[in-house]
Amino acid sequence: MIIKQQLKKISIADIARELHVSKTTVSFILNGRAEEKRIGREVVERVQKFIEEVGYRPNPLAQSLRTGKSNIIALMVEDISNPFFASIARLIEDRAYKNGYKIIYCSTDNDPAKTRDLISMFRERHVDGYIIAPPEGIEDEISALMKAKMPVVLFDRHLNDVKTDLVEIDNMFSTYNATKHLTEQGFKKIAYVTFSSNQSQMLARLDGYNKALEESGYKPFVKEIAFNQNDDLIIGPITAFLKKNKNLDAVFFGTNHVGTCGLQVITDLGIQVPSDLAVVSFDDYNVFKMHSPPVTAISQPIEAIADNVITVLLNRLNTSSQHISSQSIVLKTDLHIRGSSLRAAQ
Amino acid sequence: MIIKQQLKKISIADIARELHVSKTTVSFILNGRAEEKRIGREVVERVQKFIEEVGYRPNPLAQSLRTGKSNIIALMVEDISNPFFASIARLIEDRAYKNGYKIIYCSTDNDPAKTRDLISMFRERHVDGYIIAPPEGIEDEISALMKAKMPVVLFDRHLNDVKTDLVEIDNMFSTYNATKHLTEQGFKKIAYVTFSSNQSQMLARLDGYNKALEESGYKPFVKEIAFNQNDDLIIGPITAFLKKNKNLDAVFFGTNHVGTCGLQVITDLGIQVPSDLAVVSFDDYNVFKMHSPPVTAISQPIEAIADNVITVLLNRLNTSSQHISSQSIVLKTDLHIRGSSLRAAQ
DNA sequence: ATGAAAGCGCTAACAG
DNA sequence: CTGTTAGCGCTTTCAT
């Protein structure tokens, strides 16, 4: 009964007063430093019992103000409504909560100015660490964070000239491999449709495509589209591109977003897959599996990415790994070959 | 130069000292109460100029500790990786940032215990408001929040016996209408596959289906699946259900997640849509649009939901609307009729 | 019109 | 082993 009545926030001072001990003692007990400070067994028990009874919880704001720590991790992705990032966010969230950390996330829209604002907001709030899929142009801010000894893990892409912890996939090999698959199937006029971007992962993907084509001696056809969240502004250019290049026999979409939009265009134009046009996309995704025919796709190891990201960050936070300068983790992808890219399937 | 050197966090006390005024004066100016407090023009300008120069930003933690406000809104959804919730989160996030609020979000998994924990964590952190798609069983916590005068907006579903601000869609009419569409197309054995749930929106959807079938005099076939994030645990039961009930001529999926899994089953079993089986799903979604044939779906007005949610909450936060007890907003859905449910299409 | 000072709740250095 | 005390940076009452 008393328990429930204790609605008024009770503070460490109240406990100290009530139990005739000092705030310090309570604070030490709370922080598990009772042994270390050789506080009497009896006192410890009395305090713990009381805390239990009244359901006391320390005020995290005061703690943060005092210690400069917040138990909050900032997660900055390109767009939280993108299924790739949403899934990663979900997994990271779970792991973080289990380790006593909260996640505060946001979408950067690949906009460096917005990202800068967000970072400075997070710094003010004393977040303890950062997980970022960085847009270009925020090298300085990241460096500043590192200089301030803030744990920063980048993922999905990296920034040149900034040495941070990093979790990535092998983009170049992934597209190289998928393009090879297309050439082995006998496709020769293979287009690559992607967002126009200098982000590391996008450049690597493009490189992989180019390299594979070069080896085969085929001509590359690259269509770059301005990055945009709005489907219509992606569908438009793809439609124009496919209409203009009827001679293509395969198309490779460089991201899941481009891929889904591209698939929509193909459906709308009544193009037959794979007889008119073979299709491959980066990122696996419901839509691709369930399309008829199912679409060959490069599947990123979402769980592994999330796991590695959070593990690296938690390690940093536990300060045990201060001496490690930085680590890069590169994960492999899987090429799921399906009907959309099989010459034989016809 | 001086500007950049000022890396050490500068505080209100520093400013006061530097400018030979008191902390109070600075604070008043900072909070736009200079006029009200009749502080000298000249002083105000000097202070503002200085603040500008050194790029001073008040420490929000200290502000929160002192005022009890945090400028943070908690957003609790069922699962942030569900595209419906991810899209809503994205829109809400944008609007919130524009109004000076940050969003801290999390997934409840429809688990009342987890949700309770999260709420108590948020309370400790003094978040200013809550946006929640509530699981059942947290009526007491919501009531407690309301009693504590915390702004709470529920959406997607409501809780009986708890009167809060609310943004919903007309679930019952939506399924009624879609079921009617099926009967009008001549389908008679129409199954309804859904998560097993007593959440208001799920009950309403089921009611709509039942009502429409009742009017037609057809027998309902309802398959309830345990709520789960794991696709395999959804696909299994649906597969079993469809295999066992070969006589069905149409199936209505009650959520986007069930719908996508169901579609996968249909594909895997080689069932022809709509000739073997017509398909309708709640929630519109890429997958449905791009399926062949495209799937008839009930589309929720995502933007309108997000807009209304945040508008209602911001109103509450601006305290101007203290007198309003609570408001419910019910939005309409659109039934997008596509090939998957057309008898004539064959 | 401005300033001194209390205090939000907590931690930790420093005494005893 | 335990208590006193000084802040963390800010807001706000009360005095001047």
From TrEMBL, chains A, B:
The keyword Transferase does not apply. One of its GO terms (molecular function) is DNA-binding transcription factor activity. CDD domains: HTH_LacI (cd01392). InterPro entries: HTH_LacI, LacI/GalR-like_sensor, Lambda_DNA-bd_dom_sf, Peripla_BP_I. Keywords: DNA-binding, Transcription, Transcription regulation. Residues 10-67 form the HTH lacI-type domain. This is Transcriptional regulator, LacI family. It comes from Pedobacter westerhofensis. The lineage of its organism: Bacteria, Pseudomonadati, Bacteroidota, Sphingobacteriia, Sphingobacteriales.
